Amino acid sequence: MAEDVKVKRVAICTGGGDAPGLNAVIRAAVLAGINRGWEMYGIRDGFNGLLMPENYLDGGLIRLTRERVRGITHLGGTILGTTNRGSPLSFPLKMPDGTIEEVDRTDELVRSFRMHEIDALISIGGDGSMTIANALARKGLWVVGVPKTIDNDLDQTVVTFGFNTAVAFSTECLDRLHSTASSHRRVIVVEVMGRYAGWIALESGVAGSADVILLPEIPYDLEKVAEKIRLREEQGSNFSIVVVAEGARPKDGTVSVISHEVGRAERLGGIGEKVSQELQQMTGKETRVVVLGHLLRGGSPTSFDRLVALRFGAAAVRAISEGRRGILVALDPPIVQYVPLEDATRRMKTVPLDCDTILTARDLGICLGD
Ligand code: F6P
Asked: Which of 175, 197, 233, 331 has its Cα between 20 and 30 A from that of 41?
């Protein structure tokens, strides 16, 4: 519970894939910390600034002043840089015999924090970053996590910042694709990110009036999708919009993976092209595929994401000033609350099959591939 603590130096890091709102969290945390008389620091590229300081002209750990965070709330990306490879828990190191071995570098990291006299760390990231944050907390480091990811798959928070911006952009793309699909009487397949969770596909698909939405949570039968497209033809709609989550898979098949690399999660992708080609064969209709990919991670955060990000950044600093550690700030509307990091890393938050948005999709007649 809350205690009166003396804090002097706090570091912030951003890890994993970038998401709109990272800079807003940084600005809020820096200002809230400085206003308490603390020194605020930023670590370059996840933890690389501390693990490989020799690679940075500025030493990998930079002082964050009011000037440094001025005018960044609306900017996408992160002023600190980020990485989604080389977790300190399994860092790929080249061995003398030339082979690559994954090494746990968290002890080294904790020593580096001590050496720089950092009292607490604000770690902004998704499930991978929170697993690292939890491991560091177990080793005695004072850590407060902030939930980020466009995928919205982090448990214990209703939303992560970045998700709303991704959904808004994807929805706008679906709106734009409707007119060209309709003019050419085509089937347009739109592949969206989200890893093993279908949040972006579901929410933008419903908001953007897709005819079919394929999610990782519901393995699909493409015959059901072809039937839906044929039915629409019979009813006079000679075009269709199909949204496919990158982690979607056929009933009797597997997830489409682009590559497996040492030191990082498998890269998903390619399912849109497969679905598009198969649907062209099955329906005889001309199809096109659009992969939204990293466009979903770019651009300015929506006002919703900006506000959530600013609230998260300020709440992380309040948590530290109250002596709370090993926690994640989380949105439980209308409040921001604190949950144990341990709980947030236990499972992935996927779309519940009985949730209201799934029911809404079915009521609207959207085909979910089952
Ligand atoms: O986790 C965010 C995310 O954008 C996923 O939706 C996607 O699968 C992955 O990152 C892509 O990672 P990369 O930037 O390495 O291509």
From this structure: 331
